[in-house]
């Protein structure tokens, strides 16, 4: 099984969490893309989807799945998305695909967050994957200084503008022992829109693809 086979298997396992007749939240990235492709097979059984990025919206639209504006809904039953790292408390680093802010917003409205990953993403301590931080363009220098003061090595992601018109700074060299506190600390830097730690709203279920099959962690 290669990594794409693992991603496809876990994405297909997540289809069991999709309730009939409802609007669901859909994430971003290569694993989420496999989920979208699987969702297309049951598109007549759901009302539609809220996408966490323009890229996922385009893929959902191409499959004929109706898109909804989050502002027209009060709640989503489920949100399905991948992660760059996840720990055994189901706290995550996300944003490798630069969609972290919209992902965090959609996740906040969902009753259940189902994270879909291959086993390479499961870690003891978050931080090996450089932490993505979405930043207002005029604040990149000031935010870079503040992130350095927190002990990280920040680097502007070259050539990337988010769906919200902002920049991404990736912060390497972190060992995030208290994800909730660090999420709040980074978010309190003026000019930061949000950062890719999902600890205040972790996943509720982790579906983890292994060579032996899909494991479920809660
Ligand atoms: C996008 C994300 C993705 O969920 C994360 O980068 C994982 O992507 P992939 O499934 O391609 O490994 O947070 O912003």
From TrEMBL:
GO MF, any single term: ribose-5-phosphate isomerase activity
EC number of the protein: 5.3.1.6
Keyword vocabulary terms for this entry: Isomerase
Catalytic activity: aldehydo-D-ribose 5-phosphate = D-ribulose 5-phosphate
Entries under Pfam families matching the protein: Rib_5-P_isom_A
Main enzyme class: isomerase
Pathway: Carbohydrate degradation; pentose phosphate pathway; D-ribose 5-phosphate from D-ribulose 5-phosphate (non-oxidative stage): step 1/1
Annotated catalytic residues: 103
Domain of life: Bacteria
Gene3D superfamilies: 3.30.70.260, 3.40.50.1360
Binding sites annotated in the UniProt record for substrate: 28-31, 81-84, 94-97, 121
NCBIfam families per UniProt: PRK00702.1 (NF001924), rpiA (TIGR00021)
Entry function: Catalyzes the reversible conversion of ribose-5-phosphate to ribulose 5-phosphate.
Family listed: Belongs to the ribose 5-phosphate isomerase family.
Subunit structure: Homodimer.
Name recorded for this polypeptide: Ribose-5-phosphate isomerase A
